Amino acid sequence: MPINPYQPPAASNPLERRGDTDSAAFSSSLDELLGDKPIDFSGAADADDLRRFLKKDGDIGYVFPIAMIVSLALFMLVTIGIGGNQWIPIGLYASLLLGILITVSTPAYRRSVFRNNQPNWQAPIRGQFHRHGLTLHSDNATTTFRWNGLLECIAVPELVVVRLAMPNYKTVMFNPSMLKHLDGWHQLEKTILLWQSCYAKDGTGDRWIKVRSTMRSPNRARTVPLPADAVSFSGPLTTQDRMNVDSRKFRRGRPWRAHAIRISLIVSIGGLVYEMIRMVWPSSDTVKVIVIGYAVVGIFWFLKYRSHHKRRPRLLHHLAGHLSSESIVTDLDVVNESVKWKGYEIIQQTDHHITLGRTDDSQWLHLKSEMFANHQAWQDALTLIARNIPKT
């Protein structure tokens, strides 16, 4: 019987092995709700789903209303003429800032940003919700996200939204038409509410911090069994590795609205600071010294920041997995993925590392020689890659 590369070992329940009583209770309740029968889904999200999601996800917090009130007050100073001419420039910059804040809260802007960050959000998906988590299938890959690895689950009438940590904080939307039976939809809604009661209740902390901590741990146990012919790898992936990857193919440009907002923010905030300095210190020479001083400090800080990150790269996650004759499997504990060889292409290669890019999306896999047990294992991995991925 062939090994299922994305099914956890039967002796190890990924929810209970951490000794978390809430997770154990969630696992027990989930067994009663789902048992061994998964909830199958197949289909695609539509524009109405996105509209409902953005409406539900439209919380703008406290910063927006506070900034809006302050900007409105300054704007009124201009319109009613209080304070004389010296207030007019400040009011104009504040009006620009107010316009920016209103713009970024509009559905059109938020929809544009979402579509840019999630270009395949309307692509058909298929998979299952099951006792271990969420599994997504594609022509070349199978990805399983553990329940304790989901960042957020949202349920609104006729819509369920799940945020995934990998890849790139992906957002997946489900509607009733994607399930074969209405009973399955009701089951899914109950499952999401159960997840929220365990992982999203008050006091549970930031989900991303917990998930990232798990993926960064070098001491975590493998959750994917190794086939007999597998070449395993394990090692850290850092921001420096990401910088070394020629990711021009995977780099997404920002929508024009985002560029316009960024430029407007710089102009409005810079103008406000300049005019306030000019009000406090009317002397033109003093203003010049202060502005030049701020500019020098800003440039120095930026250069130091860039230099620091080059000297001391930040850990992204501890990558583990294996290569076999059939596929490449990555094991990050909270998310496991098995990708067929035809789903990869070689992006760049040196004596000490190789980067593989997905043919169907913007993901990439960066393997380094030090991730393997010895030089022979590294050579075996390169041989497997050369045998299964034709050079372009």
From TrEMBL:
Organism, scientific name:
Rubripirellula reticaptiva
Keywords recorded for this protein, A-Z: Membrane, Transmembrane, Transmembrane helix
Name the UniProt record assigns to this protein? YcxB-like protein domain-containing protein
Disordered: where is this region? 1-21
Q: Which domain of life is it from?
A: Bacteria
Q: Which residues cross the membrane?
A: 60-84, 90-109, 260-281, 287-305
